[in-house]
Specification:
The complex is a heteropentamer, with 1 copy of chain A (about 400 residues), 2 copies of chain B (about 350 residues), 1 copy of chain C (about 300 residues) and 1 copy of chain D (about 300 residues).
Chain A lengths: L1 E6 L4 H16 L3 E6 L4 H13 L6 E5 L5 H5 L7 H7 L1 H4 L4 H5 L1 E2 L2 E2 L1 E3 L7 E5 H7 L7 H6 L1 H6 L3 E4 L4 H16 L1 H8 L4 H5 L1 H16 L8 H9 L3 E5 L4 H7 L8 E5 L7 E2 L3 E4 L6 H15 L1 H11 L15 H12 L2 E2 L2 H4 L2 H16 L5 H14 L2
Parallel strand pairs in A: 1-2, 1-3, 8-9, 11-13
Antiparallel strand pairs in A: 3-12, 4-5, 6-12, 7-9, 7-10
Helix pairs in contact in A: 1-17, 10-11, 10-13, 10-20, 13-21, 20-21
Chain B lengths: L1 E12 L2 E12 L3 E6 L5 H9 L6 E6 L2 E2 L10 E4 L11 H11 L4 H15 L14 H14 L4 E5 L7 H18 L2 E6 L2 H7 L2 E6 L2 E6 L1 H6 L4 H6 L6 E6 L5 E4 L2 E4 L13 E6 L5 E2 L8 E6 L2 E4 L3 E8 L2 E8 L9 E6 L5 E4 L7
Parallel strand pairs in B: 3-8, 3-9, 6-7, 7-8
Antiparallel strand pairs in B: 1-2, 1-4, 4-5, 9-10, 11-14, 12-13, 14-21, 15-20, 16-20, 17-18, 18-19
Helix pairs in contact in B: 2-3, 2-4, 3-4
Chain C lengths: L25 H28 L3 H6 L12 H8 L11 H31 L5 H11 L4 H15 L5 H26 L2 H9 L4 H12 L1 H17 L2 H5 L8 H10 L7 H34 L3
Helix pairs in contact in C: 1-13, 3-13, 4-7, 4-10, 4-12, 5-7, 7-10, 10-13, 12-13
The chains are: A alpha/beta (about 400), B alpha+beta (about 350), C mainly alpha (about 300), D mainly alpha (about 300).
Bound molecules: adenosine-5'-triphosphate (2 copies) and magnesium ion (2 copies).
Chain lengths: ~400, ~350, ~300, ~300, ~350
């Protein structure tokens, strides 16, 4: 059966990962019809949602799990996967279990988590630091200290794309690294506006402001262009989620040799467990429904998880598989995951609306140098106060 | 039995009343000309008769049938437009047969009717041309032909000649006259060319602001206009008007001049009120012959306008401009003093208050 | 003696005939100078697109964008047309091209047909209330599409047309209607009303007059409408992305996908080739129809 | 007197009415219905799906308290006014130049008009490329020796809107020029003759006689530009995607992002309602000038 | 000393030769009317004189100064256009003073000149209105005023009255005549209205296809047209032409009818060749009086067109149509047989080959 699958994985590493899904699905005698939408989630989500609303749904679609699909589920537009989840014992195999919780509404499971992506990474270019004549830093403080040398060597210390989710994501990373998990939880989970306006948070904003200075001269749009600056040694480093890993891999670089990755900015080794999940819009055609379930099962199956996550550079959603072929960075991630140093992802705790507002604020701060960290903090606190 | 009869016709465009309680009866075979200044509602009336405008009130009967709500094509009328309105993409033949085809007239019948019309109008050689390849006069003839083939009783013409140059206009005017003499159907003809009106009409209806001012034979309208508007409107050069009064019974007095109205035919007998004394420039007699007229006076030629066949002399009587049409060969020059005279019986006198003929 | 003075000889001294003109008068230099500069400004992007699309990536990275290509390569064109990837689809623009064609033809035909009949009804068969609807329609031309996107999704869903070709045709017909109707109405109004009257006297009905009299006389305005619709629909992005699905994406959406599917570095040459390929249909139409379009715009847009 | 009955009004012109049904439906359902639907929902707290739980003016309050929206409005105002002014002046000046009985008029006109055939997506991409500091104009000028030269409008929040303006003008002035040219050609030639006999230099004639006479053409052009401005979306998306930061955001994009990205329909609807109001503010005076002023003239 | 003198003027639009080696001398204070069919080059000639068109060859002198290469504003001419060409956004006063302001005429001077022109044209009350608020006639007067304030010697008029209705046209015609009598400057006036030409002109130049056919006084052109084109063009109703020959010296023969040309003034004496015998309908005499004419014959009235003041009777001589203008009161009816007669001395005879007067 033909099953159209929409997603926004169009960069080199991502596309290679998707191909693993497709390969596996086609092997079952079905046909994966690829519906890639370029431009990132911001472009793709409206298309996906309007198609679901418009009564012409695709067979399956990527969405960040979390609150994005809440209302669609509530409106009864999504296929209930509880039966196959029970059958496959997802609750037992999915690690951390929080991932499955995000797929659960009223006790029913509506999505398949496929990977864990964590934001808390900085990627450093060995070449850049070699050119600048300094050692590759091992944490955020060293990194900022070496910035001058990088600038002197004509490098951009910190690569940063212009899209709002990137600056907002970097903020989250700095938030956890500098402010610690408790502060983060207070603000993001409990929506504590006072904490958001407090002195601890002020430090975070100071650090964020410092990072802004380091990124001057980084004139690229897309995240992978920024990653490319790190790959080519034009930039010292980039704060980016673990999906950046895929780009290094496609470029044939080796962790530890050509680049270094520091989880939690080397300060606070913790990773968030956001990630991608697939939803299956309801469909009248029983054949399609069967195919949908087939795909759902497939996606969480062991071999597919391994193949997919190796290409994607993300962590698998099940703890019971062998990822020994994974590279350095991924291993680091797996260790942290195993140690339970995890936190929820922003998408799981904040509504799309609030995330959007924060993104707007962060990207504005990042680009408008006349905005002081204090001003940004005030605006931030206001958003948190309104958050639902 | 009347051919077209219009009863209490009202037509409004929004709040503008264009035709107001208009009544008109036209006999079979009559040639009626609607004449009037621009915007007085002539075309509007014609369009109402044709059914191209929906009347606001009143009725229209054609051949004693109430057609007020009929479609234009069912009224038994044919219409010829100022701009010809030929279908540019069809040949002449196509133009002529379009209406018949629409009415599902059999093919042979169409052929024979087209042939007959073409013969009458002498456009046989043109049948396979398109309108763009015709001269103005030929187009006009095709437009007439389009009405002709439909074998209707009533022909409506909306200024059919006004797009043509003077010479062609004169020729086609005669042709239309000939056509009417041949066909004997009813024709309603709109124009604002007086010469056309006078030469073609059995009766003329002079319109002003949606009302018919006078409906009479051309001669009557020319000689006995019912009001000052009609008098002024008809005739070129237009009628002279002297401002004065008739306080002395039977005499018209303006300034120091008195004109005896002895043999003037009053409508209701003389009145003693301020009046306009109207007199046509072409009825004035000059030179020696003037002395034999009931009224004569000496005047000075102020402007002399030779027009070839005639000469128009501008002079004044009691400081009121007075034009005189004299022969083209006359030798009056600007500044000359000369004698003019006329017969007050040929005058038209209007009450100054309501401007009606007295 | 036809010409009263043809045989008189006249002595002629001093200026005679046309005043001599210097081709390089200051005025001409200024006018053509300005025009040339302006023309350069307008042509520059086209030139850059073409030049870039013919270069290889190394040349782009080293040289500047205004330099003519040294090593002309058609690789980017081939890639843009048939190899560029979005996700797993590596069919380039070609698929989008055919989708666009498939969308274009019915949309243009239906929207023009409906708008012309509307315009005709408005111009010649005025009925009560027609003007009111027309005014609403014209106002509608200025309503930002964003307002209507969402209700349209629901509307199409209710009609069962969402994601179908028919839905997109409907969307284009609806949103093209105001300006096209205006165009047709103005044009039909400018045709002599007497023709219409004559046809009515001849017994032709609503459709008879439309097809037999009006249509044959309106070829120019149909051409203008066609140009407007072809370029408008071809260039549409918003409706294409929202009301279709990936395998029916029109070329503009495909273009956006290709340009935004960055794999490592931006392949500017491929992007430019893709851009040119997408622009080629409307460009050809404009260059080919040039004068006609200008005349039509003048007839439809500028009155009084 | 045989009184035939007056036919039912509804059935007169029946064919015309049937033929106008698509228009009537569009006007009522799409333009009125959809708009009303949107306005009603702007008073709700609809998130991903439209729901009718009303919250009064809360969405509007938030709207006007959002920096991004204010920036969008500011951008739109700036872009709008500049593009109005520049399109009209440049369009008119170019039209005047082409009106000078020059050679190759057709060629020049085609060159100036062709960008109009290209979509905003294409326009945005190509200008993004030209204005790219690494490869485009800045690079060229630097390579000529001015190594300090900076021209990166798309990467400088203060001037990014100019970068968009350059592209927008490039795309649209040709069309305005054509309209102006048609207007100029529509001016009675005898006016020109009269002014030559009066010895009035042509620039003065343009300013004092021709421009006042072209008022309707200017208004038409103005409305066309204005309608385009309010809708400006594709260009920004293709050229800067609102960046850097939020510096080149526009209302249409705000609406779109709110509705689909932030999944806050109510907010998006409120923003689009404000856009609609701004359109009406432009349109109603125009409609008044165009139709109300001289009723029955046409 | 001439006011305007045109020497061997050529004007081509591309390959189309509109004016061909045209020569024309106009005296000071003369009122010259250019008359001709549409498209014959009248406006073109006027534009050349004004400097609005660049001549292809030849010279133009105004007041004995070669102005061929001068700017229009330096030629000492004023021009009045058919469409008035008033500046619509300026008041009447603005219209009148715009040119003067531009020429940096001092303010008082402007005031006084505008006041004088306004007085002459009686438009003082209108000075602060805009053209849109003026009637056709008033606009025309303002257009004349614009030429007047510039104090020029030569006025050029391009069909200044043709946009007006008949009555207004007649009035303004007289005003222009009065103006000329007052100002005594040179006027060159283009029209295709014969009546205007005949009444206004000191001399008329009849043009055809870029050539001047005849340049003469109105009376001369009316009475002694130099060729058939002019004869046919001038006069309404137009001249009758009988096709025949003069093989018998001094006699015109058509069919069985012979007309003795005893007192006809030949240009170069009689020729023995086929000719057109032209005779004006208004010079024909009918009824008893006809018998006293050198030539008379009996004819049948085919169509009678009463026009009020006159009646046009269509008849034929030797099967060739022949029109006769008779008095409006005449009682000839269609089908009547009647006697007509005329004096061949008033005829115009043209060689059939080159159509020149013999
Ligand atoms: N469709 C219309 N809407 C409003 N007013 C109209 C319309 N058609 C005509 N009128 C008005 O009705 C009046 C009569 O018009 P109509 O065309 O009948 O005049 P007319 O006598 O034929 O004039 P003309 O001699 O110029 O043809 C005019 O004042 C005109 O302005
Ligand atoms: N700009 C032009 N280009 C080419 N041919 C022209 C141009 N202007 C006029 N003509 C041609 O020159 C001839 C004379 O034109 P002109 O306007 O002088 O005629 P006219 O005698 O004034 O006619 P009318 O009585 O209609 O005003 C016409 O055949 C016309 O087609
Ligand atoms: Mg009329
Ligand atoms: Mg002319």
């Amino acid at each position: 059966t033909d099953l159209e699958v929409t997603h926004w994985w169009t960069s080199g590493g991502e596309a290679a990962a998707v191909a693993e899904f497709a390969k596996a699905f086609n092997a079952t005698g079905n046909n994966w019809v690829d519906g890639a939408i370029a431009g990132g989630g911001g472009v793709a989500r409206p298309v996906i949602i309007s198609r679901i609303l418009g009564g012409d749904p695709m067979g399956a679609t990527q969405l960040n799990h979390g609150r994005q699909a809440e209302e669609l589920v509530e409106a009864g537009l999504m296929l209930d996967l509880t039966d196959i989840a029970t059958e496959g014992g997802w609750r037992d195999i999915v690690n951390p279990t929080g991932l499955l919780d995000s797929c659960t509404v009223d006790g029913k499971i509506y999505c398949v988590p496929v990977n864990i992506h964590s934001w808390q990474w900085i990627w450093l270019s060995h070449k850049a630091f070699a050119d600048a004549g300094v050692d590759v830093p091992s944490n955020w403080d060293e990194f900022t200290a070496s910035a001058d040398a990088l600038v002197a060597a004509g490098k951009t210390p910190l690569a940063m794309g212009q899209q709002s989710w990137q600056s907002s994501g970097a903020f989250g990373v700095i938030n956890v690294a500098i402010g610690g998990l408790d502060l983060w939880t207070k603000i993001n989970v409990n929506k504590d506006a006072e904490a958001a306006a407090g002195p601890e948070m002020a430090k975070v904003f100071e650090a964020y402001g410092a990072a802004r200075v380091l990124s001057e001269g980084s004139n690229v749009q897309d995240w992978n262009q920024a990653t490319n600056m790190v790959i080519t040694g034009e930039a010292g480093g980039q704060i980016m989620g673990d999906w950046a890993q895929g780009e290094f891999q496609v470029a044939g670089q080796t962790a530890g040799v050509d680049y270094t990755c520091l989880p939690g900015l080397g300060v606070n080794e913790i990773i968030s467990t956001g990630g991608d999940a697939f939803y299956f819009p309801k469909n009248d055609d029983p054949e399609v429904t069967a195919a949908q379930k087939e795909l759902a099962k497939l996606m969480i199956s062991k071999p597919v998880q391994v193949a997919f996550n190796l290409k994607k550079g993300s962590l698998p959603v099940r703890g019971d598989i062998d990822m020994s072929t994974a590279n350095d960075c991924m291993q680091k991630g797996l260790e942290i995951l195993a140690a339970g140093n995890i936190m929820p992802d922003g998408n799981q705790v904040l509504s799309a609306d609030t995330s959007g507002q924060i993104e707007d604020l962060m990207v504005e701060f990042w680009n408008d140098t006349s905005m002081t960290p204090a001003e940004a903090q005030a605006a931030y606190a206001a958003i948190i106060a309104e958050a639902d | 039995m009347t051919s077209v009869s219009i009863k209490n016709l009202d037509l409004n465009f929004g709040s503008v009343k264009v035709l107001k309680q208009l009544n008109l009866e036209i006999d079979h075979g009559e040639f009626l000309v609607l004449l009037g200044a621009s915007g007085c509602g002539k075309s509007t009336l014609l369009n109402c008769i044709a059914g191209l405008l929906e009347v606001s009130d009143g009725q229209i009967h054609i051949n004693d049938k109430n057609v007020t709500w009929e479609e234009p094509s069912d009224r038994g009328i044919g219409m010829v437009f100022q701009s010809y309105a030929l279908y540019p993409q069809m040949t002449v033949k196509g133009n002529l047969s379009f209406g018949l085809k629409n009415a599902r007239v059999p093919k042979d019948e169409i052929e024979s009717r087209v042939a007959r019309a073409a013969e009458i109008l002498q456009i046989e050689p043109l049948l396979h041309r398109k309108p763009a390849a015709l001269s103005g006069g030929q187009r006009q003839r095709v437009a007439i032909g389009r009405a002709l083939v439909r074998d209707v009783d009533v022909f409506l013409f909306d200024e059919p000649l006004s797009n043509l140059d003077a010479k062609l206009r004169a020729d086609l005017r005669v042709e239309i006259k000939r056509l009417h003499q041949k066909l004997h159907n009813t024709m309603i003809y709109v124009t604002h060319d007086q010469v056309e009106a006078m030469t073609l009409a059995d009766r003329i209806a002079i319109m002003k602001e949606g009302l018919i001012q006078q409906l009479d034979s051309p001669a009557e309208i020319y000689n006995r206009p019912v009001n000052k508007y009609v008098a002024d409107f008809i005739g070129s050069p237009s009628m002279n008007f002297l401002d004065g009064d008739m306080s002395t019974k039977g005499k018209f007095k303006t300034g120091g001049t008195e004109i005896d109205l002895g043999n003037y035919e009053f409508v209701d007998g003389p009145i003693g009120a301020p009046v306009w004394f109207g007199f046509r420039p072409e009825h004035v007699i000059v030179g020696e012959a003037a002395t034999s007229q009931p009224f004569s006076t000496k005047v000075v030629a102020e402007i002399v306008e030779p027009m070839g066949s005639d000469t128009l002399v501008w002079t004044s009587i009691e400081n009121q401009p007075f034009r005189v049409r004299v022969d083209g060969q006359a030798s009056i020059k600007t500044g000359d003093e000369f004698l003019l005279g006329f017969d007050p019986a040929r005058a038209s006198i209007f009450d100054k208050e309501n401007e009606l003929r007295v | 003696m036809t010409n009263s003075s043809s045989n008189t000889t006249v002595e002629m001294t001093g200026p005679r005939g046309a005043k001599p003109k210097r081709a390089l008068s200051p005025r001409n230099i200024m006018i053509y100078g300005v025009l040339l500069v302006v023309a350069c400004y307008y042509l520059l992007p086209l030139y850059v697109m073409i030049a870039t699309s013919l270069k290889g990536m190394p040349e782009i990275r080293l040289g500047n964008i205004f330099a003519p290509p040294v090593d002309i390569t058609f690789e980017p064109w081939v890639k843009a047309w048939s190899q560029a990837c979005t996700g797993l689809n590596c069919e380039g623009l070609s698929r989008g091209f055919w989708n666009s064609v498939r969308i274009l033809i019915p949309s243009v035909a239906i929207s023009i047909l409906i708008a012309s009949v509307n315009g005709y009804a408005l111009a010649n068969w005025k009925f009560k209330g027609a003007e009111v609807f027309f005014t609403i329609l014209i106002f509608g031309a200025f309503i930002p599409y964003q307002i209507m996107i969402y209700p349209m999704v629901i509307f199409l869903r209710e009609l069962g047309l969402f994601g179908k070709l028919g839905g997109l045709v409907l969307v284009h017909t609806v949103f093209g209607m105001p300006i096209l109707t205006l165009l047709f109405r103005n044009y039909f109004t400018s045709l002599p009303e007497e023709l219409f009257k004559a046809a009515r006297v001849d017994g032709a009905g609503f459709w008879g007059i439309y097809f037999r009299i009006m249509l044959p006389m309106s070829i120019p305005i149909f051409v203008v409408a066609m140009i407007l619709q072809v370029t408008g629909i071809w260039n549409d992005f918003l409706f294409g992305v929202i009301y279709t699905k990936p395998d029916a994406y029109p070329m503009t959406v495909q273009l956006n996908n290709i340009v935004n599917s960055v794999q490592g570095v931006k392949e500017y040459n491929v992007n430019m080739a893709a851009t040119l390929l997408t622009g080629v249909v409307p460009l050809v139409i404009y260059f080919a129809s040039g004068k006609l379009f200008v005349r039509g715009i003048a007839a439809g847009a500028v009155k009084g | 007197m045989a009184q035939s009955t007056r036919p039912n009004r509804l059935f007169r012109n029946l064919n015309a009415k049937i033929a106008a049904l698509p228009m009537i439906a569009t006007a009522l359902v799409v333009f009125i219905g959809f708009t009303v639907w949107t306005i009603v929902h702007s008073f709700t707290k609809s998130k991903l799906l439209p729901k009718l739980d009303f919250v009064g003016f809360a969405q509007y309050e938030r709207l006007w308290g959002t920096r991004r929206w204010l920036v969008s409005i500011e951008n739109l105002a700036f872009y709008g006014i500049s593009s109005l002014v520049f399109s009209l002046t440049i369009g008119f000046l170019l039209a005047c130049l082409l009106d000078q009985k020059i050679r190759f008029e057709n060629t020049f006109r085609t060159i100036i008009l062709y960008p109009f055939a290209l979509s905003f997506i294409v326009t945005g991409l190509v200008w993004q490329w030209i204005l790219n500091p690494e490869f485009g104009v800045q690079n060229i000028v630097r390579s000529l020796g001015f190594s300090e030269f900076v021209f990166d409008p798309l990467y400088n929040a203060d001037v990014v809107i100019f970068g968009i303006l350059i592209a927008g003008l490039w795309q649209g002035t040709g069309f305005i020029m054509v309209i102006m040219l048609a207007g100029l050609r529509g001016i009675d030639q005898e006016i020109w003759k009269a002014s030559r006999i009066d010895g009035i230099p042509s620039w003065k004639t343009y300013i004092f006689v021709v421009i006042p006479m072209m008022r309707p053409v200017f208004i038409t052009a103005l409305v066309l530009i204005a309608a385009g401005i309010v809708k400006v979306y594709d260009l920004v998306v293709a050229q800067t995607n609102g960046g850097p930061g939020n510096a080149s955001e526009v209302p249409a994009k705000y609406v779109y992002d709110m509705m689909f990205k932030n999944q806050n329909l109510g907010q998006g609807f409120a923003a689009s309602t404000v856009m609609l109001l701004s359109v009406l503010v432009i349109l109603i005076p125009w409609a008044y000038l165009e139709f109300g002023g001289r009723k029955g003239d046409k």
